[in-house]
Amino acid sequence: MTTIPPRTLTKSNAQYKAALKRLPLGVASTFRYWGDDRTIYVDHGKGGRVWDIDGNEYVDYRLGYGPAILGYADDRVDAAARDGMTVGGVFALSTERELIVADRIARMVPGMDLVRFSNSGTEAVMAALRLARAHTGRESYLLIEGSYHGLFDAAMWMVNVEDWDAAGTRDPEVVSYSKGIPQDLKSLVHLTPMNDPQRLTEVFAKHGNSMAAMLIEPIQGNCCGISASTEYVRLARALCDQYGVLLIIDEVKTGFRVAKGGVQSLHGVVPDISTFAKAMANGYPIAAVAGREKVMRTFRYGGAAHGGTYTAHAVSLAAAEECLRILDETPALDTIASYGEQLKAGLSDILNRRGIVHSFTGHPSMFGLFFAPTAPDNYRDWKLSDYSFYDTMAYHLHDLGIICEPDSREPWFICEAHDAACLADTLKAVETAVDATLEQIKAEKRA
Length: 447
Ligand code: PMP
What we know:
Blueprint: H1 10-20, E1 42-46, E2 49-52, E3 57-60, H2 75-85, H3 97-108, E4 114-118, H4 121-136, E5 140-144, E6 157-160, E7 173-176, E8 189-192, H5 197-207, E9 211-216, E10 219-220, E11 226-227, H6 230-243, E12 246-251, H7 262-267, E13 273-276, E14 287-291, H8 293-296, H9 314-329, H10 332-353, E15 359-363, E16 366-370, H11 379-384, H12 388-399, E17 402-403, E18 412-413, H13 420-446
Parallel strand pairs: 3-17, 5-8, 5-9, 9-12, 12-13
Antiparallel strand pairs: 1-2, 2-3, 4-14, 6-7, 10-11, 13-14, 15-16, 16-18
Helix pairs in contact: 2-9, 3-9, 5-6, 10-13, 12-13
This protein binds 4'-deoxy-4'-aminopyridoxal-5'-phosphate.
């Protein structure tokens, strides 16, 4: 019998109870609530690890949903941010560093001629969609099922696969994934399954002439790293050209992570507009909208509005300058991918020795793990797959000092600071977690 000593979460539990009085669910972001007894409050992070307020140490594969690409509290980026602090904050005026960072982005990502900054991924995608609408004079847009583009009304639509007859001929219903979204907005959104070229061609034939944009995350960073094939992304590019629709590649998670030029460079496709955020500044809040010159110049008086009080904040901008320099000029991304490959190999070895069928999606720097011979290539298939093994294993891993997302939709993120000790600790914990999961499943079957 595998025994997992329970973590002490006394201080986190007390903090949760106290926080509940002032913060809905006791947290600042709904996804940080992991249950009344298992919501963790962080003391600090360093490198690839975090420590909670009870002193529990974890190897972290969530990395704040991706931003800590170099690792927490990276000395180089933090020194740059401290230097940025001396600039004085925000002025409702521009600083010289904006051009330095914009130049770096344009050099790293082919085809991104012009750049504007935002504070978060949500804000960047919101601006990108507004830009596409302003440029084309059209209002509707196309999303891929399973994608996540942030918390703004236009992006918060999904297909309801819970109440869907997979064997039938009808598509799942399009629903908003939060209360509070005006239902009138539904008429502007179209959804199509990933990697289905026929459906994509059909949706363009039907709605292409009235669509402003197609948004795609070629690696779905919020749906297990399900990946578009190169042919699919290229078809999207060709259809957008044919119908005058702007292609927006959302690289909020993939940008400056899977390659210097993002996932778009891996597919050899240049979008009209692209959005970046997480890995830009190793956790300091900054994002970017970038794109083709003619489109980007629609950001002007009388064109698409863009701006905001905290846009291009001096601290974030200084952090972005240093973080992007490191990602561009050092082998950091190779180090990250190589660790991801080693981790995947280690996981496979443990699972194979127990005859557990599995597969991976995404990129070594952000990969999804499935307990099926082949990974799903669209959201409907993920929803119909069995993710109970993952859910149980993740639960045990937390107790064993490894933080992966409890929801199997979130990939495992790797940072430059994950090292041999992190790998050894992780694989030891995974071995125990997998055995405990197997025993638990066996016991449940017997019961
Ligand atoms: N787009 C994608 C692809 C994302 O993964 C996210 C965040 N997970 C967003 C947009 C929204 O970014 P933010 O949380 O910074 O608003």
